[in-house]
Amino acid sequence: MTTGRSMEQPIGLAVIGAGRIGSTRARVASAYPASRVVAVVDVHVDRAVELANDVGAELSTDDVRRAVSCAGVDAVLVATPEHTHTEPVLAALAAGKPVMCDTPMALNAADAAMMERASEQSGTPLLFAYTQRFQRQYQVAKENVQRGALGRILGGTVRVYNSRAQAFQILKRCPQVTPVVDVLTYWIDMVCWMMEGNPVREVYARGQGEVFRGAGYDADDLVWAVLTFTDGAVVSAGIAYALPEQYPTLGQSPRLELIGTHGALILEDERRNYFMYSESGVLHGYVPNHSLKAAYLASSSYGDWAQGVFWGPLADETRAFVDFVRTGRAITIPRAKEARRTLEVTLAIEQSARTGQVVRLPLANAG
User: Fold this and answer.
1) Is the model's pTM score more than 0.70?
2) Nearest to 209 by CA among 194, 198, 224
3) How many CB atoms lie within 10 A of CB 172?
4) Which class for 346: exposed (0-12), middle (13-18), buried (19 or more C-beta within 10 A)?
5) Euclidean distance between CA atoms 312 and 302, whole angstroms
6) Tens of pLDDT, residues 34-82
7) Given this model, what pLDDT does residue 79 score?
8) Most buried by CB count within 10 Å: which residue of 17, 38, 226, 285?
9) Do domains 11-129 and 133-301 have the same CATH topology?
């Protein structure tokens, strides 16, 4: 798609949400010659004002509809808490503005279906930020899977670990969410992307834990699931997000394996080869006022600020969205239909872990 602007004119963005991710995307976009931030929205207006001043935006407000309708806004970035995606997405689509929203798509299938329908009916692109796709190793892996290097994929495994320090940041922001729906979703997306055209049809899961429930959150510390795909391929998927606070990762610590009839793919992405120890502490970019004496550098899931520049997949993804709006060229950021299917898999994992029953997809209440 294209906006009708000349290629010399930067794409005007409205950024909805001035927290950690929204402010990072805004700063990346404002530093990119192909885009500028026109409006910043946050329920805390002082945050919106501060970020707008930092990135040179003309408008700071708590009114989403005002921002997405603002003259000069061509596209919208939604970076609000997980349970608040639906309203700003629908407002942007109603205004005819392409949207990239952070994950998860929603916390229930009905809201996800509503957003997907709104995108289809308006003819306006709705994309979801599965940022890990912008790690180079996964792009190269996808290229090789696509060309048939593994043959038919028979199955595999994917898992992601992290410390409870980061998990509690997520749960404090959105107590309704779980590590499965909020984080394992990235790796369900990754496996489903590698297995494109072969959707998950059945889920069986088990969960266990006491750390999060002991703190008042209805979430398992650890969940493992078996996913059966349409052609019979079997993948185990697991998450453990309650490791001790001093566990040395600064973000998601994943491993992906796929086994095919002609080959195997193993991607270990814990960054253990980038190690730092400091008596004064290594700062954690996601958890305020938290530091580690030992840490795997570059293990932040979305990237790092260094030398005044943000490096990593979130920056690449943000710029790719801008380029998509400008040129309409093909992009690996998932559309609404793909994101909804991924959400359904994570909801099925939660349902199976809760009930002890096999859950078949698509979900009966998926809208």
Assistant:
1) yes
2) 224
3) 10
4) buried
5) 6
6) 999 999 999 999 999 999 999 999 999 999 999 999 999 999 999 999 9
7) 99
8) 17
9) no
Q: Which CATH architecture describes the domain 133-301?
A: 2-Layer Sandwich (3.30)
In terms of Cα–Cα distance, which of 202, 197, 198, 210 is closest to 237? 202
Residue 48 tokens read as 């919106």
Give the Cα separation of 193 and 173 in Å (integer): 28
Q: Do 298 and 274 contact (CB within 8 A), yes or no?
A: yes
Closest C-alpha to 89, from 140, 153, 143, 16: 16
Question: What's the CATH superfamily of 11-129?
Answer: NAD(P)-binding Rossmann-like Domain (3.40.50.720)
Residues 213/219, Cβ–Cβ less than 8 Å:
yes
Report the pLDDT value the prediction gives residue 298, as an integer from 0 to 100.
85
What is the reported pLDDT for 138? 98
Q: Tokens 């998926």 appear where? A: 366
Helix (H, G, I), strand (E, B) or coil at 167: helix
